[in-house]
Amino acid sequence: MNALKKKDRAKALVRHNQSLFRCPICKEPMKMNDAYSMVCASSHNFDLAKKGYISLLTSGSKASYAKELFEARQKICEAGFYDPLIEELAKIIDKYQPEGQKEINLLDAGCGEGSHLYRLSQRLKSDLRYNLIGIDITKEGINLAAGRNGNIIWCVADLARLPFQDKSFHFILNILSPANYGEFERILRNRGFVVKVVPEPGYLLELREAIYKNEKQAHYSNEQVINYFRQKMQLVEMKKIRYEFPLDEELFPHLLKMTPLTWGGSSEGLNRVWEEIIPSVTVDLKIIIGKRK
């Protein structure tokens, strides 16, 4: 798909969903004009990029990740690494979708390079229209996400100042990413759900033990994250997903590039990982479902 067609499709998608948006500067409603820009009543202007995404940041972001990291995550996801999780998320959305709605508004908050939302979009039931939006504060991730051909709106935006109207979304996904529950509660519909995915203690255990051996970083607890979720949201349900995923010589380097586990590892620990043969890793995750208190 050439750049103009991609931009035209993005414009049509945003225009269909423009009622969800508000200006991140003055909080006024915004509309998509014929010049490929979102404009509010105060004339604040946000242009669609050639790739078909829109940046709604009010200032330059200090968050920056290497393009190689997002490309590695994309490769890992394309290999099916998170597919059991995505299948379970599709079931959860089907289970909790509101009755009588012809359109479902779903936000992936902290979507990175967009692989989870894109793969989820292929598994959602087709009897409803899903208005899908993925946001991340990193331009590198969103730029890669916008290279896909799915019917998804991609935005560079800040979790601390979400560019959406109050009570806009039926579902907010927050997958292995930081959360902002104040903003989530503001944009969540009264009967909407926040679906958060957090690592369990066994997540990438083989990799963690190889890098850190007996150091404190070899062990992980999500207790504080879950307790904080309970403080901010009314807990509805928790689901655990655990499985082993086989690795090969082609996939293993991508796994190392994408995980934060390797960022703080010593050179000795990282060298040890390259020398050891890890035939498979554990994917150990918890899905937490909550709603407004």
Question: Which range does the strand content fall in?
Answer: 25-35%
What is the CATH topology classification name?
Rossmann fold
Oligomer: single chain
What structural class do the secondary elements suggest?
alpha/beta
The value of Rg in angstroms is 19 Å
The description of the largest β-sheet is:
8 strands, mixed
How do the helices and strands follow one another from N- to C-terminus? HEEEEHHEHEHEEHEHHEHHE
What is the tally of beta strands? 11
Architecture per CATH nomenclature, i.e. the level-2 architecture: 3-Layer(aba) Sandwich
Mean pLDDT score:
91
Based on Cα principal axes, name the global outline: globular
With strands numbered from the N-terminus, the spatial order across the biggest sheet is: 4-7-6-5-8-9-11-10
Tally of structural domains: 1
Distance from first to last alpha carbon: 44 Å
Number of helices: 10
CATH class bucket: Alpha Beta
Looking at CATH, the homologous superfamily is Vaccinia Virus protein VP39
Name some characteristics of this structure.
Rossmann fold, three-stranded antiparallel β-sheet, globular, alpha/beta, eight-stranded mixed β-sheet, 293 residues
